[in-house]
Amino acid sequence: MSFKSLFFRNTSVRQTVFKNTSWLFIGELIGRVIRFSIVIYGARVLGAATYGVFSYALTIAAFLTIFSDLGLSPVLTRETAKNPALRQKYFSSAFALKRVLLLMNVLVLLFILPFLTRVPDANALFIFVLFIFVFDSTREFGFGMSRSLETMEKEALAKIIMNLAVAGLGFWFLSISASAAALAWAYALGTGIGLLVTVILLWKYFRRIFSEVDWGLIWPLFKMALPIGILGVLGAITINTDMIMLGWWRSASEIGYYAGAQKIILLLYVLPTLLASAAFPVFSRLANVNNTRFRKVFEQVMTMSVLLALPIFVGGVILAPALVNFLFGAEYMPGVMTLQILFFTILIMFSSAVIPNALFAYNRQKLFLAFAGVGAFGNVLLNWLLIPRFGIEGSAVATVITQLLSNGLVWWWMKRTNNFSILKYLVRPVVATIVMGGACYWLSLAGVHLLLIVLAGMAIYFAILAILKEPLIREVRNILRVR
């Protein structure tokens, strides 16, 4: 198969999933790594306290981005994939609803949130937060259309350019002024550039976004989006409440320690999210049409996700002290235990991230609300109980427990929908992980540099899988085989 056919055309289900996953992986991972570079630099230059203030403000921006989407992007992907002839009408109508949500969140940010924050220095950053969340939310909406078209290469390009802009401007502005405002300026301008690129790449649809609104679609779209939207909001509460509640009881420095650990984990969360997004169009086509084929594809995607999770979890726990010191410096070492605790969420998230998209393809998302509610309420309650006494470590434990509860319920609901099983596929990955973990532990005791340990661990893990003849390794080889 030629390079062009493999990465720029949709020729089969397997190749399309591989192509889309590859482009999402390239765009998201390269983009995140680029942005992570400015996170590391900013954390070192600003110090834990000032970086904690910036992270607190950025958490609010992420929170508002979820509120301003309310499930519209995945609904847009699903409905336009099913009804290609109505793509423009769905896109225009959904954006009309999107504008209302954006306006509501802008008003909340300007007139309510300044009175609720207990991190006073963050108030000065709220004007930047406004632009960041508006640009981010609108760009993600555009990606909903790109995913329905299964042209993830466009999304990858936009994300890479955006993160290059954020990082480049961040390094420049921080060299002029080592302040939270300078970094916030970089994020605001960089996300604006990302939105501009997205509009250009999807101009065919954006140019008619105001002229082809079907007002009769607004209410149906809202009803379809609301369950998944509330799920997203509750998920945002689960993910972001810890930072907000830490701001109530703990110092800005402790927020900085926690933010450093959390940034590492959130970067790793990208991997299962990419698999889920790439597989979603295929899930949508197969659900209730060919359930046997659906189960096979779903089990393969799930197994791949867990196959990635196991070595990351074991290696992360073993190498956490070296990782924090290498990335952020000795000032952030109080966050090591927090990072080790949060690494347990890798096992939970990687094994569960694919399931919501699969259930959404079956249009069985209504119970998501109850499951996510358990996670959101549990996270708030456990943070309230644990943060005052145990600080950032208590918040990390609260995150692990609530993710285990809410994702366990989602797993149970998926098994009732299409009874899958992946345990039979995990023997080889577990064996490879044990061997890799032992090697990493020994190398760390021997004083080998972190990067060499990581490279050696990856090589050992995949070599063991190849020796054990892991089927998924053969699948990738078959896809890449040149005819």
Automatic annotation (TrEMBL):
It holds the Pfam family Polysacc_synt. The keyword Secreted does not apply. Its main location: membrane. It is a multi-pass membrane protein. It is found in: Cell membrane. One of its GO terms (cellular component) is plasma membrane. The chain crosses the membrane at residues 21-41, 53-76, 96-116, 122-139, 160-178, 184-203, 224-249, 264-283, 304-328, 340-360, 367-386, 392-413, 425-444, 450-468. Keywords: Cell membrane, Membrane, Transmembrane, Transmembrane helix. PANTHER family: O-ANTIGEN TRANSPORTER-RELATED, PST FAMILY PREDICTED COLANIC ACID TRANSPORTER. This is Uncharacterized protein. It comes from Candidatus Harrisonbacteria bacterium CG10_big_fil_rev_8_21_14_0_10_45_28.
